[in-house]
Amino acid sequence: MSHPERAREFARDPERVAWHDGAVWSVRTRRDAAAAGVADWEALRETAARIRAHTLSRLPDYLEQLEDRASLVGVTVHWAADAAEHNEIVHGILYDHGVTRVVKSKSMLTEECELNPHLEAHGIEVVDTDLGERIVQLRGEPPSHIVMPAIHLRREEVGELFHQRLGAPAGLSAPEPLVEIARERLRAQFLEAQAGITGVNFAVAETGGLVVVTNEGNADLGTALPPLHIACMGVEKVIPRTRDLGVFLRLLARSATGQPISSYTSHFHGPRPGGALHLVMVDNGRSRLLGRESLRPSLACIRCGACLNTCPVYRRSGGHSYATPVAGPIGSVLSAARDIEAHASLPSACSLCGSCAAVCPVKIELPGMLRTLRVDAVAAGAIEPGMRWAARLGSQLLRRPRMLALAVRLGRRWLPRLASRWLADDSIAGQRELPELAARSFREQWRARDAED
Amino acid sequence: MPRVALFVPCYVDYLAPQVGLATAELLEAYGCEVDFPEAQACCGQPMANLGCHADARPLALRFAKVFDAERYDHVVAPSGSCVAMVRHHYGELARGAREREALIEVGRRTRELCEFLVDVLEVEAIDGRYPHRVGLHHGCHGLRELGLGGPSEWAPSPPDKVGRLLESIDGLELIELERRDECCGFGGSFAVSEEAVSLRMGRDRLADHARGGAEVIVSTDVSCSLHLASVARSAGNTTRLLHVAELMNEARKALATR
Amino acid sequence: MPRTRGGSRRRVLSALRRSAPVPVPLPEVTAGEPTGGVDQLRHWLEVAGAQLERLPDERALGPWLADYPPFASARRIVSTLPGIPGAEHATAAVGDPHACADVDLAIARGEFAVAENGAIWLSDAEVPHRSLYFLAQHLVLVVEASEIVGDLHAAYARIERAPEPIGARPWRGFIAGPSKTADIEQALVVGAHGPRSLLVALVG
Fold first, then answer.
1. Closest residue in chain C to residue A217, using alpha carbons only
2. Is the model's pLDDT at C93 over the cut of 90?
3. Alpha-carbon gap: B153 to the closest alpha carbon of chain A (Å)
4. What stretches in chain A show pLDDT beneath 70?
5. Residue A427's pLDDT is what?
6. In this complex, which chains have at least 3 CB pairs below 8 Å with chain B?
7. Does C135 touch chain A (CB under 8 A)?
8. With an 8 Å Cβ cutoff, are A348 and B193 in contact?
9. Confidence grade of residue C20 (pLDDT, cut at 50, 70, 90)
10. What is d(CA A202, CA C30) in angstroms, rounded to the nearest whole number?
């Protein structure tokens, strides 16, 4: 199924679309208020974009520096060329430590690599501890948003889920008691865990420090309690200096949720006494992205989710309609860049409004990249033949004024008759009327006007 | 006197010719000698946005030739999206440095109507009368790529060139919207390939304007107004959908005839 | 031992080097606002669902806490500050992080506060275990009133100026409020997994 097909399914429940659209839009609104409170917001975005561009221009050097400094403070550093290797490495570390119970905080990288199924196939229990992620994990579905994984669910659905899977009383839907139940269950899991897996928001090359950001404190509980901490990061997450954190962190929470900062911003500088800290750095197609000048800035992404929140298409079609680890504008770019044939409909799941680029804290020109990926789709023969022919025909016709004039004359007669045949889809019929060709075109009127003078 | 060429996008030419005429009349009222080179066709935006650069390129080259710098100092179009294409994306279509230079050069001389009035003709106010509650729908390309208005995402937001021109019109009241600049959902081929979402976006825009009490919805892009009109008509909504050129010209003529 | 499949490090680095983007300069980062006001700090802590109390000095903390409901109802209280009646005075590191599991309220020192967002910078240096900050049901952080910086730029400038010996303070961080989540229908609930409340006692 393509994005438009899934979007049509989502659209069949207009009330749900309105609710989802409104809920996600409200996060955009909060972002706006937070941005307005920072005097140098636009300058900050520009600085962040430049720090990223610089880092990407010297990525191997910074990764080597990171490896060096992290190793000095006792971190064991691993390199994974692809998702499969990442999964093998993580599993290997757990196996060496005899681990069967893992708690995991949010990491889009581990989603991308499909780590959970891999570990579970090897008999390791993985509990996602971010509440939204735990909810979708219990439901057996992927997250629909990178910051708010369960944004697509109503409270009653969460209540029913907790009743089925966590022993909550039936009919509970108020968020507070539901969170309290989750708190209790997950606390037990934190206390029994043998290892904690986290993502990495930022890795500081100059110090070897790893920064992990949460509101729930789940990354900290998951790494303070068990002796083993495995941090998984895409190679693009490295930043040069400690002071660069000030720039990114001032932008991150404000862009993501409208908060000036998240509740917990933890800096890991080596394992805790008696513990071990492993860092797995993953390529998985990032080096290829780095090599494409027009797409390279997509690696600057700090995973704030602002582009999802502002995207009018995301809000009205839901994260699952993208069928990717990351949804929305950035997800469409990353997935289509990785595999255009599997994700051919994503670059076109966009009206090119440009709102995403305008909110992006690191100024990624997402619409331009989606346009580039449409060129990829055409080159791969992955767009609808009808569109391809329309472009060819249109180009030919528009270059030939006499033919165009004839087409217009014919169109005036035949278009109204054809239009009703086109609009066959019953979910769409009655929702719009095609415009009519004017009786006299502009150029005909201009010629007449000229003749009058 | 600067030589101004009018670029009337294909869909305006054949679907909304009155917008082209209003644009010409406005430019003439502000002292321009306007020419309409008949050899013009399409700027190539639909093909380029589909990813069919090979089909867009000949149209872009033709555009550069028709609107040659030798003949025209300025190219003005009543379309934010077409102008954004010409000014910001023509370079991508070029093969070789000579083509690139020609395509970028014509982009430098091409402007949307409102930005031409404000930035080149230095019009600060429209002498006109239009006593109505008006909803302003900024076309996305004009808004975010050409700077015709202040995008709500930016902090702070730059001044709204189009809004200021409209508010200078006697009796005109711009209404407040809940979502000042959300996309109408046209997006070219998007309206066909993602029909369900496109229609939903159009309906939501109309509802926002209705809640704000708009008697008329004015846009900087005919593609947006045609899309909104098609959604409105099928719902029995008779709100008038105009292009800024039509509104400003009507307002100007209303005062002139008194 | 690193588990990299022989050569992956080399493969990844050379794949990254092959793309060789044009060099881009690293921009300067502002040193920020070195000082910040109590009112701004209080505002952002309250927005985050935390509380700020001004006290003349550390000795006033114990008596003040007697009427603070999370303290009054706590069965087990651990404090890295001395002289808090009813609290265990924690002086040494504890090997087992689980030992803090039944702590109802923890009191610890923060190094400095950031006015633009209410964040308190601290480390695991003085606590029995870093798990205390997250397992305690309620958290009290004591910060000197003279130690308020204006924004995160100034905070990191300060952090950069204090070099750490290798292996010292493996955990450092900002705590800017109680734990919270809005994962169920965007409804904000305070007390997700970490502490249900944060009190910042600003002394001096």
1. C194
2. no
3. 6
4. 416-430, 453
5. 47
6. A
7. yes
8. yes
9. confident
10. 19
Residues of chain B with pLDDT under 70: 258
Mean pLDDT to the nearest integer, C78-83: 96
Residues C15 and C65: their CA atoms lie apart, in Å, by 59
**Closest-CA distance of chain A to residue B105, Å:** 21
Nearest to B191, CA basis, from B204, B201, B180, B205? B201
Check whether C188 has a pLDDT greater than 90: yes
A415/A420 Cα distance (integer angstroms): 9
* B219-250 tens-digit pLDDT: 999 999 999 999 999 899 999 999 999 999 99
Is there a contact between A266 and C173 (Cβ–Cβ < 8 Å)? yes
- Interchain CB distance below 8 Å, A432 and B199: yes
Q: Is A131 on the interface with C (CB under 8 A)?
A: yes
> Would you call A344 an interface residue with chain B, using a CB distance cutoff of 8 Å?
no
Residues 310-339 of A with CB under 8 A from B: 310, 312-313, 316-317
Of the candidates A330, A442, A347, A437, the one whose C-alpha atom is nearest the C-alpha of residue A387 is A347
Q: Which residue has the tokens 């439901």?
A: A139
**Preceding omega of A117 cis (within 30 degrees of 0):** no
SS (H, E, C) C50-102: CEEEEECCHHHHHHHHCCCHHHHCCCCEEECCCCCCCCEECCCCCCCHHHHCC
Q: Is A388 on the interface with B (CB under 8 A)?
A: yes
Q: A3 to chain B: nearest residue by CA?
A: B194
> Looking up tokens 């660069």, which residue turns up?
A244
Question: How many contacts, defined by CB atoms under 8 Å, are there between A and B?
Answer: 209
The ipTM estimated for the assembled molecules is 0.97
Structure tokens at A33: 């208020």
Q: How many helices and strands in chain B, by DSSP H and E? A: 13, 8
Number of Cβ within 10 Å of residue A2's Cβ equals 18
A/C interface, count of CB pairs below 8 Å: 263
Q: At what angle do helices A131-139 and A155-166 cross, to 10 degrees?
A: 70
Decide if A216 touches C, using CB distance below 8 A: yes
- Chain B, residues 118-177, CB within 8 A of chain A, namely 140-141, 143-145, 151-156
Q: Do B228 and B243 form a contact (C-beta atoms < 8 A)?
A: no
Angstroms from B254 CA to nearest CA on chain A: 21
Interface of C with A in 64-83 (CB under 8 A): none
Residues in chain C: 204
pLDDT band at C5 (very low <50, low <70, confident <90, very high): low
Chain A environment of C150 (Cβ under 8 Å):
none
What pLDDT, on a 0 to 100 scale, did the predictor assign at position A420? Answer: 59
- Does the beta-carbon distance from A351 to B55 stay under 8 Å? no
C43 Cβ under 8 Å from any chain A Cβ: no
Contacts of B54 (CB under 8 A, 6+ apart): none
User: Among partner residues C21, C23, C176, which is closest to A261 by beta-carbon distance?
Assistant: C176
Cβ density class A115-128: b for 16+ within 10 Å, e for less: bbebbeeeebebbb
First-to-last C-alpha distance (Å) of chain B: 29
Q: Name the phi and psi angles at B200, rounded to 5.
A: -60, -40
